[in-house]
Specification:
Radius of gyration: 16 Å
Helix content: 25-40%
Largest sheet: 3 strands, antiparallel
Shape: globular
Order of helices and strands: EEHHEHHEEEEEH
Strand content: 15-25%
Number of strands: 8
Strand order of the largest sheet: 2-1-8
Distance between the termini: 24 Å
Structural class: alpha+beta
């Protein structure tokens, strides 16, 4: 299972926190995964979940330069993330461009687009929207696992 979470604006963080648990069976169904993630956000937000093919190839040359020292596992996650965000851009009728990284490793998207990429073991997705519809967006995914007993104490 995976926990997908969305945080709202800072001043409303406690009022606007939503979570969704996606089971392994749902995780295998790309359509239900994308719809489930999209249900966390306003209707103008596009969400795409990586297909197995998205983990292999399809990077622009400038993106390949960013990942040239990455280990194979990290490179495949990076590739899937870039392919997911590009699918979001396509759905928003935005130009397919290299998605480079900013100073804080955030994706640099075309002007007028906001978005986020997340990945963890076995899962990758991206969300994006027109800036005219939503000022900022973020998504995060983590494996849903039990806490170590010592952490609870």
């Amino acid at each position: 299972m995976y926990l997908i979470r969305r945080l709202g604006r800072r001043e409303q963080i406690t009022d606007n926190y939503q979570s969704l648990v996606i089971s392994d069976n749902e995780r295998r169904n790309l359509v239900s995964r994308s719809r489930a993630i999209m249900s966390l956000f306003p209707g103008t937000v596009i969400a795409k979940v990586a297909t197995p093919e998205m983990y292999n190839g399809g990077l622009f040359a400038d993106e390949e330069k960013l990942a040239r020292f990455a280990l194979p596992k990290r490179l495949s996650e990076f590739t899937a993330g870039r392919n997911c965000i590009r699918e979001c851009l396509k759905a928003l009728n935005a130009e397919a461009v290299p998605v480079l990284s900013g100073a804080h490793r955030e994706p640099i998207l075309p002007s007028g687009i906001v978005g986020s990429i997340t990945h963890c073991e076995g899962f990758c997705c991206a969300v994006a929207a027109h800036k005219s519809d939503i000022c900022a967006i973020g998504v995060d995914a983590e494996p849903w696992t039990a806490l170590d007993p010592g952490i609870v104490e």
